[in-house]
Specification:
Its EC number is 1.8.1.2. Residues 1-12 have a biased composition (Basic and acidic residues). Component of the sulfite reductase complex that catalyzes the 6-electron reduction of sulfite to sulfide. This is one of several activities required for the biosynthesis of L-cysteine from sulfate. The chain folds into 2 domains: 24-212 and 223-348, Sulfite Reductase Hemoprotein, domain 1; 450-577, Sulfite Reductase Hemoprotein, domain 1 (2-Layer Sandwich). Helix 6 (110-123) packs antiparallel against helix 13 (397-407) and helix 13 (397-407) runs antiparallel to helix 14 (430-439). The protein has helices at residues 24-30, 34-41, 49-52, 63-68, 83-88, 110-123, 146-155, 180-196, 203-209, 303-317, 328-335, 337-348, 397-407, 430-439, 448-451, 473-486, 549-563, 570-576; strands at residues 74-78, 95-100, 107-108, 128-130, 136-141, 172-173, 238-241, 255-261, 267-274, 293-298, 368-371, 377-381, 387-388, 411-414, 420-425, 453-455, 496-499, 513-519, 522-527, 538-545. The radius of gyration is 23 Å and the shape is globular. It has a 5-stranded antiparallel beta sheet with strand order 1-2-5-4-13. The chain is an alpha+beta fold. 51% of the residues are buried. It contains 18 helices and 20 strands. Strand 14 (411-414) and strand 15 form a beta hairpin.
């Protein structure tokens, strides 16, 4: 683990003592960010969404409602591939919505799977997209179909509220099927935190399901007892990990709980991590990714209190004037971990213990069949970039998983690496599941590099994308697999992740090879992160074209093959051999960048 203790000479700011401003005039006087004014005026996330849905002249909604609808689990997007042609014809953009579900721990029943599949083929673009946050999202839902899609989601006893927006978002949990008891504890904690920190406004049901409005609802102070009118300064992400697997990338998130196990594998308590986050802005060095600090240890009975305390301190201390510096990672950089911990303990009502020892060995998934401690069987399938669809001439994921859901007696689990687990299969059912997997060409694994790869959606739907990601990564992996094989590294596990922009949705900054879009077919290349996700990479080469990526990486693969020590990971080797500087944590992410020596 990297030492993240602050240097003794560091001087921190004095934390605020007041609750966030929630009155419009005071917010204007204080110069708060525009989104704060939107939230204050929204009537607890209602805005003019209900009226905007009735305006059929455009497939879009107002700009302010475009911010509010995120709290309801949606983003307004358009098909950027169609922009030039539509512009030429003087047509409006091809607007549609991305809908993201809230599925704590990523667990759904076969019945829910079939309903979600039907929504995908009826109202979306015919695919389910497993995200890097252990949930599903739909793409291509037009405005006139939004309420129908939401009704279908509600019929599956699921929802989308708080899947996006300035709230505690979908809570991720470890999925390791072999650790049955620990997984159950992780899932239960994820579900409890998700339910407890859910916004209490009835706006979601009123707008999307034509629910009755609570009399005086938006004016009642008790509508949001935890969040208040202004919710959080920015997004807030919570994850639960069970060592030795760091599959949820605990160091990349605002709040994390690491299970501390006894010799029998039972959870005795949780190490609590705070202050991780991936997003940054190109060219702005006051923005940076950051790995979380391991702050303290808590007993199981205190975990929910700690989660609420961490979130409410961020609610009160977070930067509401500058959204680019509003995440918890910047709050801790501003006020210091010691002050933050003291305030958390004050709100919990007691002193908490220091962290306990733990060890992670990687952040990937375990593919193929695994038997749990309870005798149930679990099959992890490799799903490229999480896109559940039928591939021409290849795996038919959508059809195959639909057929499996029709006969499956257990449940499905999504992983933080965008894969799908057919979970809790009785031993007698394994042959039937295997036969369906083979019939539809589903993949129980892939090459070592693909097994450890991730990509965000990027083009054509994401409005923030600067470059391709999901559509391009498979071709790049083929090139790099050839390069690795030529150096005898075909079976070596190396993490590689790609995003179309620096928001970091696929967590590229903690991948041993991180590729972040800068423009059409241009990427910043980051190297030197830790295989277990505990250390950030460093910018190695700027604006590398897609055609140059193999050429840049090939000599590094050659050097690694010749010079590595037994068991040494690619990222660790690059630092030890002096090719790239080590990143200690967020603030020095932008220091000593570039190649330190030639790899040719």
């Amino acid at each position: 683990m990297t030492d993240r203790k602050p240097s003794p000479e560091r001087v921190y700011e004095t934390p605020p003592t007041d609750r966030p401003i929630s009155e419009a005039e005071a917010a204007r006087t204080a110069g708060l960010a525009h989104n704060e004014h939107i939230k204050i005026a929204s009537g607890y996330l209602r805005g003019t969404l209900a009226d905007g849905l009735l305006k059929h002249a455009t497939g879009a909604i107002s700009e302010d409602d475009g911010q509010l609808v995120k709290f309801h689990g949606m983003y307004l997007q358009d098909d950027r591939d169609l922009r030039p042609e539509r512009s030429k014809k003087k047509l409006d953009k091809a607007y549609s919505f991305m809908i993201r579900l809230r599925i704590a721990g990523g667990v759904v029943t076969p019945k829910q799977w079939l309903i979600l599949d039907n929504i995908a083929t009826t109202y979306a673009n015919g695919t389910l997209r497993a995200t890097t946050r252990q949930t599903f999202q739909y793409h291509g839902v037009i405005k006139s179909n939004l309420k129908r899609a939401m009704a279908g989601i509600d019929a599956a006893l699921l929802d989308t509220i708080a899947a996006c927006g300035d709230v505690n978002r979908n809570v991720m949990a470890a999925t390791n099927p072999a650790q049955t008891g620990a997984h159950r504890a992780a899932y239960d904690l994820a579900k409890t935190i998700s339910d407890s920190l859910l916004p209490k406004t009835s706006a979601w049901r009123e707008i999307w399901l034509d629910g009755e409005r609570v009399v005086g609802g938006e004016e009642a102070a008790e509508v949001e007892p935890i969040y208040g009118k202004t919710y959080l300064p920015r997004k807030f992400k919570t994850v639960i990990a069970v060592p030795p697997s760091n599959e949820v990338d605990i160091f990349a998130h605002d709040l994390g709980f690491i299970a501390i196990l006894d010799k029998k594998g039972k959870v005795t308590g949780w190490n609590v991590t705070v202050g991780g986050g991936m997003g940054m802005t190109h060219g702005e060095t006051d923005t940076f990714p950051r790995t979380a600090d391991v702050m303290l240890f808590c007993e199981p009975a205190d975990a929910l209190k700690v989660a609420e305390a961490v979130m409410t301190v961020q609610r009160d201390w977070g930067n509401r004037k500058s959204r680019k510096n509003a995440r918890l990672k910047y709050t801790i950089e501003r006020y210091g971990l010691a002050a933050f911990r003291a305030e958390v303990e004050k709100r919990v009502g007691k002193k908490l213990a220091d962290p306990k020892p733990f060890k992670f060995d990687g952040n990937g998934d375990r593919y193929g069949w695994v038997e749990g401690e309870d005798g149930r069987h679990h099959l992890t399938l490799y799903v490229p970039s999480g896109r559940v669809k039928d591939i021409d001439g290849g795996a038919r994921f959508l059809s195959g998983l639909r057929r499996i859901a029709e006969v499956h007696e257990g449940d499905f689990r999504l992983t933080g690496n965008q894969n799908v687990i057919i979970a809790n299969v009785p031993a007698a059912k394994r042959p039937e599941i295997d036969a369906l997997v083979d019939e539809y060409g589903l993949t129980k694994g892939a090459s070592a590099l693909r097994r450890n790869s991730m990509a965000c959606v990027a083009l054509p739907t994401c409005g923030l994308a600067l470059a391709e990601s999901e559509r391009y990564l498979p071709d790049l992996l083929t090139e790099l697999e050839e390069s690795l094989a030529s150096h005898g590294l075909a079976e070596d596990e190396i993490t590689i992740r790609m995003t179309g922009c620096p928001n970091g949705c696929a967590r590229p900054f903690i991948a041993e090879i991180g590729l972040v879009g800068r423009g059409p077919e241009r990427y910043h290349l980051y190297l030197g992160a830790a295989f277990d996700g505990s250390r950030l990479g460093k910018l190695y080469a700027e604006d590398v074209t897609a055609a140059e990526l193999r050429t840049v990486l090939d000599p590094l693969f050659a050097a690694y093959a010749k010079g590595r020590k037994a068991g040494e990971r690619f990222g660790d080797y690059l630092i030890r051999a002096g090719y790239v500087a080590q990143t200690i944590n967020g603030p020095d992410f932008h220091e000593r960048t570039g190649s330190l020596k030639s790899a040719a």
